[in-house]
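Memo to structure team: turn this sequence into structure tokens by end of day. - J.P.
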Amino acid sequence: MRILLVIDGLPGGGAEKVVLTLAENFIRQGDRVSLFSLRAVCDYPLPEGLDYHVIVDRCQAPWRKLTEISRRAAQLDNAVIKAEQEGKFDLVLSSLHKTDRIVARSKHLKNHNLWFCLHGVFSASYLGNKTGLSRWIKRKKIKRVYQRQRIVGVSRAVGQDLINSFGVMPAKICTIYNPFDLDAIRKNAQAPCEMAGEDYLIHVGRFHAAKRHDRLIEAYSESGINAPLVLLGKGTPEQEARLRKLAVHFGVSDKVLFKGFQTNPLPWIKQARLLVVSSDSEGFGNVLVEALILGTAVVSTRCPGGPVEILTGDLQRGLSELNSHDLAQTMQTLYHNPPVIDTDSLARFDVSVICEEYRKLKA
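Reply from structure team:
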């Protein structure tokens, strides 16, 4: 197959990692893969053999924001037409909403086997606390992009949210979970970890409001667990200062350890006693699967998105309601009585399985 992946950029993030994992394994299986990035930012190593292009917008006109979407769609069309001198793309995958807005305006790609890959729960990330006219306008904008398009949701919840919350009627819709190279994850987790051999809990994620570190710190305090809580991630200095103040407020400042962003968090996850997700929403929840692959028990809020689809069977004991009290109780229960992790059930997330699901999208 000849495959085109389009994304807004490649900063450190879950969707970006998914796109590169897919690219690497399609190439490994003999496919020709092009990746068009709409920004010159890349925090990940690129797979060998990837046809990578950055489509830079050099417009400096005062009114450039007003014409950005249509202008960038034309730039994308020109790049695709040039690339297709070597043959038409069999499959085009667009990832992230800013990308989707531009791709949806493309005149050339609308005649392709084009699919929009949704990585988040839009009602949580784009509607949030909006009310009245502002909420109505946002819903209309989302609907305009995805109406009668082919949609891939990284969880069933993501696709259903688009339909239920925005009134979108897709041309086609399916669920394809995020891909994981199980062998590579286990191998990379063997790297040194400064806390190896110690008893600790861990949270991995940027300091963003949706991740609800405030709920996590309050729940950790209430749980009574003596093992330290390690936070892997970063945000603005103001965000970190706010979390440090919360730790002081709840009397756990000596046990909440800020370890910053780690390029390879897998050894930290593997060595942890328990991984905790405290979010208000998770499109999928990559870190949950990574922890399970490494044999680490997980707790997650029963938030809109992927966690309830990942934590099945005995793992359901790790699901808590969206409040700090229930999260604290669930953390305490699983800390002392972790569930059995059925490693065979994780095969459904293996990258080779997921690539085959994408192959079925070929027109």
